[in-house]
Amino acid sequence: MKIVRYSSPDGPAWGVLDDGVVLAAEGTPFTDLRTTDLRVGPLDEVSLLAPVTPRTLLCVGRNYRSHAEEFGNPVPEEPLLFLKPAAAVVGPGADVVYPALSQRVDPEAELVLVIGRTARNVAAADAWDVIGGYTCGNDVTARDIQRSDGQWTRGKGFDTFCPIGPWVDTEFDPTDVAVSCTVDGERRQDGRTKDLIFPIPYLIEYITRFTTLEPGDVILSGTPEGVQPVEPGNTITVEVEGLGALTNTVVAE
């Protein structure tokens, strides 16, 4: 099932993508979502929103060896975690705002894990049971601010700095798929999830040992090498093989 969230005359609504058409849905994702026969419209005519509104956005830094090395950073011995504010989340087609405070903004293509049920102290062997699905994400980063601050909250946390979408695929296999980023059609990042330093089950166990995750919360699993800056006017597309593509345009503040 591909779960979407879209803009309707009555506000944000849930839907399901079926053969290129969005059908209205009732209930709540990961609990009692039910597809109806009401046709919202073809996908390209529906205004998609971020497919979830997470309470917690946990991100994994330097989870590809090649990405750590390209910036001259050591490969972490344990997952390097940081948080993004909920206000950073935007959906497909939304603008990424290049803040006036920054001189360098980088997109980072990532596979996103979407939590499907309350998760606390989950063993790695049970990790797949608490994942409700997967989507694409862009861990946008003001690199100069990240470096100058010495910690990552501001550099990673500006409004619009976490595009996610276009949908949540509940049946996707994330074991070995390509994760890529293109800017104005130029391929910049191209990695594979099999190269994650800390694989998905390990991340779920590690994270849920210290915090509770709720349905709709997300984990951005890390970005491969090839990170380069963007400028206002650029169009960024993050794609996860077999999952979908997430496109956003950079605008000046």
TrEMBL record:
Gene3D superfamilies: FAH (2.30.30.370), Fumarylacetoacetase-like, C-terminal domain (3.90.850.10)
Domain Fumarylacetoacetase-like C-terminal: 57-251
Molecular function as annotated in GO: acetylpyruvate hydrolase activity; isomerase activity; metal ion binding
Transmembrane segments: none
Residue ranges constituting the Rv2993c-like N-terminal domain according to the UniProt record: 1-51
Entries under SUPFAM superfamilies matching the protein: FAH
Keywords annotated in UniProt: Metal-binding
Entry keyword annotation includes Cell membrane: no
BP terms from Gene Ontology: carboxylic acid metabolic process
Tagged with keyword Nuclease: no
InterPro entries recorded: Fumarylacetoacetase-like_C, Fumarylacetoacetase_C_sf, Rv2993c-like_N
Name of the protein described by the UniProt record: 2-keto-4-pentenoate hydratase/2-oxohepta-3-ene-1,7-dioic acid hydratase in catechol pathway
